[in-house]
Design goal:
α2 runs antiparallel to α6 and α8 runs antiparallel to α9. The N terminus is likely disordered. 90% of the residues lie in helices and 0% in strands.
């Protein structure tokens, strides 16, 4: 606008005597001004287009980012709620499984204790019953050697009574069940009677009958007890297997649910962190959008005002140029300049001021001073002073605006450099953390694989121990059956031999004169019969001892097996717990690795954003920063020239 004022003042107040030369200068000046204004307009339009493009691209990108973040937040909130409900359900299931495992374990332990107690009672009763049966058999053998108690040696009768009395005392309940009152009275009288009681002679057959009945009942009870013990052992084995299978299934399910719970909690924590990061990013993006809209709106308003003003200025210059170059204006100015008379002193002053402004314009290259120098030659002092004041005010404002622009550029470059440096360090740290997490994950996976192999090996050892235990138990049953059968067979053989040799000895005639010549003499039993019977009795004793030893060994083996199973199960459980812990730690490491990778990607995206902004700053600021001192110096010299011209005009 100031160029337009200079041109009009020069046109209206022209007082030079030369007709063609001043008009030509004004026309040249107006054409130069129009070219300069159009060039500045083109440059500002390019800058405005870049700014508009920057606002549009960043606005759309951030709008899309904000929308995506909002949708992601809603999805994450739904995921977190779902994970929370799932974790609560898994926790309830885990508690229920723990209660079931505890109840089944306690039930199995109670059944094991009861089975051990029953086995101990059976072994004790079995031992007592076998001893009682042997005693009854011996009593029947001794009683069977004679026809009456009177013929039995006193020591034998005492032995029989002692054995029967002991049997009655040890099996009182059984005696009450198998004998009627008459038989019980008969046995009681027999046990309590003296050694030589004639009255019992007639009852010897009845007593033997009662003893045989007792023997048969005892043998039947022993067989029943053995069968019941075998059934109880089989039933307990089945119960134990079923309970162990149920417990193992529950333990496997518990471990699976605990692992799933750990994974669910890890996923929920990851979703919460992701939601927090997304919320932070959304807040930052929203703040950026608010600042972006403010900047872009301010720029658009300034651009609208600036483009309108410049268009008006170009229009005014063009219209002035058209007026001057028209034919009517040319004729009018020709007549005017032919009759104008200039004051010589004023003309000299104009020339001096114009020369001073021209020299300063040549040193500084200022088109403003050049225009003013021309205007001084053509215009009145009052209008020139107004022009100078307006130019000084505009130059002062331009200098201040450029200082603000420079400070803004320096601050933005400094902040961009700091952010770029910090972001670069963050990328290096995150890359190192990603590598650390990857190494930890590999180590944990190796440890989990080792634990899996260890668990499989311990389970294989338990399976082998179970097979060995079954084989040992089968061997034990065979040994027990063999030894008991041996005892029964040898006892029967010993009874037979005892009856025979006892009868022969009782029939031997008293010592007398030797038999006549040719007579066979009295029958004598085999001299080796005593050794054979002793040997059979020794074998029976050895078989009984071997049976006891086999029972003890079986109990020891069963105890050792149970201890081994208990210790191995404890070791397997500890390994499973360690495996679950390491799996949870691995999941945490994987989650942390994913988070660090996401953080690294965000940091790299931020680095690209910072680099793009740095490029935009260079496009907007390089010209100002590189030419700031020269432009400020030129404006200062321009202002000094204007002040000098104004001072010179005031002295006129």
């Amino acid at each position: 606008m100031r160029c337009f004022i200079v041109a009009l003042v020069a046109l209206v107040a022209a007082k030079d005597a030369d007709v063609n030369r001043p008009v030509a200068k004004v026309i040249k000046l107006l054409e130069d001004m129009r070219s300069q204004l159009e060039g500045e307009k083109k440059s500002e339009e390019d800058m405005h287009d870049k700014m508009a493009c920057w606002c549009d691209v960043n606005g759309k990108d951030k709008d899309a980012t904000v929308d995506a973040a909002g949708r992601k937040l809603m999805e994450l909130e739904a995921t977190i709620k779902g994970m929370t409900a799932k974790a609560a359900d898994l926790s309830g299931s885990i508690k229920k499984l723990n209660d079931e495992i505890t109840a089944n374990t306690e039930s199995l332990q109670a059944a094991s204790d009861l089975r051990a107690k029953e086995a101990a009672e059976y072994n004790a009763e079995d031992k007592d019953m076998l001893l009682s049966i042997d005693s009854l058999k011996n009593a029947l053998v001794l009683l069977g050697r004679t026809n009456s108690f009177l013929q039995m040696p006193a020591t034998g009768l005492i032995e029989v009574k002692t054995s029967i009395k002991k049997i009655i005392n040890n099996h009182d309940d059984l005696i009450q069940q198998i004998l009627n009152p008459t038989d019980k009275t008969l046995i009681a009288q027999f046990v309590q009677a003296g050694v030589a009681v004639p009255g019992y002679t007639a009852q010897s057959g009845e007593i033997m009958g009662v003893l045989k009945q007792m023997l048969e009942n005892f043998q039947g009870n022993l067989s029943g007890a053995t069968a019941a013990e075998d059934r109880a052992r089989d039933e307990f084995a089945q119960l134990k297997g079923a309970k162990n299978e149920e417990i193992n299934s529950a333990v496997d399910l518990l471990k699976a649910k605990e692992a799933l719970l750990a994974k669910t909690n890890s996923a929920r924590a990851e979703a919460k962190e992701d939601a927090e990061d997304t919320q932070n990013s959304l807040t930052a993006d929203q703040a950026f959008l608010v600042d972006l809209h403010q900047r872009c709106d301010t720029h658009e308003k300034e651009w609208a005002t600036r483009s309108t003003t410049r268009a008006l200025e170009i229009k005014a210059v063009s219209e002035a140029l058209a007026i001057i170059t028209s034919d009517d204006a040319h004729d009018t100015m020709t007549k005017t300049f032919n009759f104008m008379q200039l004051n010589q002193e004023e003309n000299k002053l104009r020339t001096r001021v114009a020369s001073m402004l021209l020299r300063r314009a040549q040193r500084t290259g200022s088109t403003v001073l050049l225009s003013l120098a021309t205007a001084v030659k053509l215009d009145a002092f009052e209008k020139v002073n107004e022009m100078i004041d307006t130019m000084l005010k505009d130059l002062t404002k331009e200098m201040a605006d450029e200082v603000k622009h420079k400070d803004f550029c320096n601050d933005e470059f400094h902040e961009n450099d700091l952010n770029t440096h910090d972001n670069g360090n963050s990328i290096e740290d995150l890359d190192a953390q990603v590598n650390d997490h990857a190494s930890n994950i590999d180590t944990l996976q190796d440890e989990i694989d080792a634990l899996s192999k260890e668990i499989a090996e311990m389970q294989l050892q338990m399976q082998r121990a179970n097979e060995n235990r079954k084989a040992e138990n089968r061997e034990f049953q065979v040994v027990i059956d063999d030894q008991r059968a041996t005892q029964v067979i040898l006892t029967k053989a010993l009874d037979k031999l005892g009856k025979f040799y006892g009868f022969v000895q009782s029939k031997q005639e008293p010592a007398g004169p030797p038999p006549p010549m040719g007579s066979m003499g009295a029958y004598k039993s085999n001299s080796g019969s005593g050794g054979v019977m002793s040997m059979i009795q020794s074998i029976i004793t050895d078989a009984a001892n071997m049976e006891k030893s086999a029972i003890t060994s079986e109990q020891d083996s069963e105890t050792a097996y149970e201890n081994f199973v208990h210790n191995t199960n404890a070791a397997v459980e500890a390994a499973q717990v360690s495996k679950v812990d390491k799996a949870a730690t691995k999941a945490s490491e994987e989650k942390a690795k994913v988070q660090r990778i996401a953080d690294k990607n965000d940091a790299e995206s931020q680095a690209r954003t910072l680099a793009n902004y740095n490029t935009e700053l260079h496009q907007s600021c390089d010209f100002v920063l590189n030419n700031f001192d020269a432009r400020q110096a030129a404006r200062s010299q321009e202002m000094e020239g204007l002040d000098a011209a104004k001072a010179a005009l005031h002295t006129a």
